[in-house]
Amino acid sequence: AFFDYMLPLIQEANSRILAERALAEKWLLEPDNLSTDEQQELQHLLEKYRITTDVLEQQQDLLLRRVNAIPPSLVLAQAANESAWGTSRFAREGNNLFGQWCFSEWCGLIPEGRGDDARHEVRAFADPLQSIESYMRNLNSHPSYRQLRDLRLQELEQQGYPSGITLSEGLQSYSQRGQDYIDEIQQMIEFNQLQRFDVIPPGSDNQRDSDSASGE
Q: With the C-alpha atoms ordered 68, 72, 73, 79, is the resulting torsion angle positive or negative?
């Protein structure tokens, strides 16, 4: 039931990312054909995905490397793990499915047992889709997940789609448990046969060409 509820939301979030990617590809291939609205949206994407360089070619390369879908198997396994299958306090009260923190006062829910010197809160979202989108943006933009993005690029080039099992190896910074956390996520993917959600049928409208940009 948890997976049945989550999968359409994940597909919607990935669909929005692929629409952003389509604009980034147009910027690369048809830079003179961008409308004013598209140019403004590109500036928003550069900020959203933490592109700080002023060099045009590097902006295009980095945006294409970062703006891409996250394998559903990985999202499903992490959501189930982090939210206790949607039953955690943070999932029920704040729609937070991935344990994401925030650091401004009243930005979310205060964890029980938080140390006196700690200031973090667990972020609250208006709905689960917002939580998924925030989680995906984090994996796609934060420097800590560069390895995950490199692994995605490799698999896109090798097999045409990224797998959650492989990309999970780039989650070393996601949990203080390190490799034990990665092993647990991989076991959840395998036990629940979540890999079946990652494969994109050949010729599908959702299939995207792999990005050959270099650098990160």
A: positive
Kindly report whether the global pTM for this prediction surpasses the value 0.70: yes
- Give the list of residues 6+ apart from residue 25 with CB closer than 8 angstroms, or none: 64
| Cα separation, 118 vs 125, whole angstroms | 21
Q: Classify 15 as helix, strand or coil.
A: helix
Residues near 213 by beta carbon (within 8 Å), at least 6 away in sequence: 60, 61, 62, 64, 65
115-164 pLDDT, tens per residue?
Answer: 666 565 678 899 999 999 999 999 999 999 999 999 999 999 999 999 99
Comparing CA positions, the residue from 120, 35, 36, 24 lying closest to residue 63 is 24
Residue 131: CA atoms inside 13 Å, Cβ hemisphere, count?
Answer: 29
Closest CA to 163 of 76, 48, 65, 64: 76
Strands 101-102 and 108-109: what pairing?
unpaired
End-to-end CA, the chain: 38
| Long-range own/partner contacts, residues 160-163 (CB < 8 A, 24 or more apart) | 160/200, 160/202, 160/207, 160/210, 161/71, 161/198, 161/199, 161/200, 161/207, 162/68, 162/69, 162/70, 162/71, 162/198, 163/71, 163/73, 163/195, 163/198
Contacts of 150 (CB under 8 A, 6+ apart): 170, 216
Residue 33 contacts residue 180 (beta carbons within 8 Å) = no
